[in-house]
Amino acid sequence: MRCLLLLALLLFPGFGFAATSATFASPQDAVRLISAANQPENGQVKLALEFIIKPGWHIYWQDPGDAGLPPQVRAAAPVTLSALTFPAPEFLSLSGIGGYVLSGHVVLPFTASHVSGNSIAAQARWLVCSDICIPEHASFTLALNGGTSAEAGLFPATPSIVPSPYAARLFRDGVLSLAGPSAAQVKSARFFPYSPDVLVNNAPQPLSFATDGMRLKLPLAGKTPAKLSGVLELTDPSGQMQALELTTAPAAPAPHAPWWLLALAGGLLLNLMPCVFPVLAMKAVAFARLGGAAHGHIRREALGYTAGVLVSMAALGGVLLGLRAAGVAAFWGFQFQSPVFVAVAAWVILAAGLSLAGMFHLSMPGFIGRIPAQHSFLTGLLAVLVATPCTAPFMGAAIAAALALPPLPAMGLFLALGLGLALPVLLLAAAPHLAARLPRPGRWMAVAQKILALPMFATFAWLGWVLFRQTGMPGLAVLAAGAMALSLALPRRPAFAAIVLLLLPFLHAAPSRPALTLPGAQPYSAARLASLRATGRPVFIDLTAAWCITCQVNERGTLAAAPVRALFKTRNVAVLVGDWTDRNPTITALLAANHRAGVPLYLYYPPNGAAEILPQILTPGIVERAVSG
């Protein structure tokens, strides 16, 4: 009935008020057309409809809710008008009807193009309501005589709706998940969709919190949309409101060849990442043992290594997908954010290094001991363990796709990633002529194994440094105590203890806080980014972690290079560093917003433009091309 009444009112404009001057007035409101400048620039001029609405009355937002119509403006050809820009709305519930409204002083900016001459004419229609609704319309003529506009100060200096820094996801049951905000930051929340008929507008939107952020139960009016856009208003405990524009992650893409190929290529390139260098030492020793062996034996060893990689990758993918399904914001390399995992990984790597050095023979657990090619299988398990701190080219997009897919296709992408990692070794099983070129075993292998143990010891020291960064001296003490306890079970205890004692100074030498490698770098925050962007300053964002070797290589080899430092200084580029060594919901949200599943992530924001995602392997030339634009 209410909608029919509104339609009838609109069809009979005699109920409204008309005006031919630059100002329209009624008992309910006063409306005029204003400009930010008194002359067009390149045929364009920024205009706005200014409403001064009497108390108790309101107009409607771009999605009016259950009833109402938003303001509309048009002009005669050849002038074209952009859409009105709306501020954050208010929620109004009246007689079981939920509406999204604007009241008080409202300015709705828009841009007119193809403007010529010294004036512009426009016609506007809107609906103003209290307990009744009155459709109004007016024609405006605005002089453009040059000079400074007296109304320029009425245009919002900063938008009331800002892009959300948090990753948003809509589940099938209507739960809107936002990674980041906590109960200490948010007292109440309401979501306003841009599209009509998506929500039961007058229904409540219950708010709850999880370890990784907030949950808002949206009362869907029908099927869950594949993608949802709108404004989320968050009110903090002090009553301050923040309006965030967000779009939920699109529906999971259908599994097709490019994603599988990206995962396969990413796994193959992962072999070239510095994280995998320690395992390459174990591979080299394994290959040396195969010199002169029968091709059938070589094939078993290669398949054993591949099986280890696939089992480990499947386990990692299963845990990651399980955590994501439970609402935890887990990404590639998430396990290294746990000090317990870092310590255990360090002990395993140390044991593997000591085995290579001949300190003891690494015997297999019972279930692995029954597997053919058990040493190769264990090497495959270790390969995935030490590879996770790195992200190779193509991996980020493939893993992000996996995290959006249903479980079975997602697991397929993780297995494709593992297959790519194991592919160089699989070539030995498929190409006998390559295996025939392997050097035959000999006395040289004993020396080679001791040399190849050094990368394993370096990895242990690096993991100790990561643990020290996470926990300080208590964590380092636990790591050392565990290593010394392990030595009691070894036959060559003095030699083992000496190695541990030699490594400890390297662990303690690292700073306990993240190092900002560039002069003037600041910690990343969404507020700091918004502030810098508002001033028109270019911004470079470096999302990194102490356990990410690729990050460390890029920072020391590229971002700390003199040409890059000079470029940032010359171009006045602000540098923000986001440290993801420990769990950080703000960094997690930024990763998810850019559809990336782990670090490193490099973003460059030009003074007036969208962010550019830079490659995961940086060179000074790549940075220079991005900044110089």
Could you give the topology of this structure?
Layout: H1 2-11, E1 23-25, E2 29-35, E3 45-53, E4 59-65, E5 72-74, E6 80-81, E7 90-94, E8 97-102, E9 105-113, E10 119-129, E11 133-143, E12 161-163, E13 168-170, E14 175-179, E15 188-193, E16 207-210, E17 213-217, E18 229-235, E19 241-247, H2 257-270, H3 277-290, H4 295-325, H5 339-356, H6 366-369, H7 374-387, H8 395-404, H9 407-430, H10 432-435, H11 444-471, H12 473-487, H13 493-508, E20 522-523, H14 526-534, E21 539-544, H15 549-559, H16 562-570, E22 574-579, H17 585-593, E23 601-605, E24 612-614, H18 620-628
Parallel strand pairs: 12-19, 20-22, 21-22
Antiparallel strand pairs: 1-2, 2-3, 3-9, 4-8, 5-10, 6-9, 7-8, 10-11, 13-14, 14-17, 15-18, 16-17, 18-19, 21-23, 23-24
**Main sheet: strand order:** 1-2-3-9-6
* Main sheet overview: 5 strands, antiparallel
Strand portion, in percent?
Answer: 15-25%
Assembly context of the chains: single chain
Helix percent reads: 25-40%
Overall number of domains: 4
Poorly predicted runs of 5 or more residues = 1-21, 251-257, 507-515
Distance between the termini: 57 Å
* Average pLDDT: 80
Overall spatial form: elongated
Beta-strand segment tally: 24
Q: What count of helical segments does DSSP give?
A: 18
Query: What is the SS-derived class?
Result: alpha+beta
The radius of gyration over CA amounts to 31 Å
Description:
The chain starts with a helix and ends with a helix. The model is unreliable at 1-21, 251-257 and 507-515 (pLDDT under 50). With 629 residues, the protein is an alpha+beta fold. The protein folds into 4 domains: 2-157, Immunoglobulin-like, CATH 2.60.40; 162-247, Immunoglobulin-like (Sandwich); 257-508, no CATH class; 522-628, Glutaredoxin (3-Layer(aba) Sandwich), CATH 3.40.30. The longest helix is centred in the middle third of the chain and has 31 residues, at 295-325. The protein has a 5-stranded antiparallel sheet with strand order 1-2-3-9-6, with no helix packed on it. Strands 20-22-21-23-24 form a 5-stranded mixed sheet, with helices on both faces. The chain is elongated, with a radius of gyration of 31 Å. It is built from 18 helices and 24 strands. Helix 3 packs antiparallel against helix 11 and helix 8 runs antiparallel to helix 9 (407-430). Helices cover 40% and strands 21% of the residues.
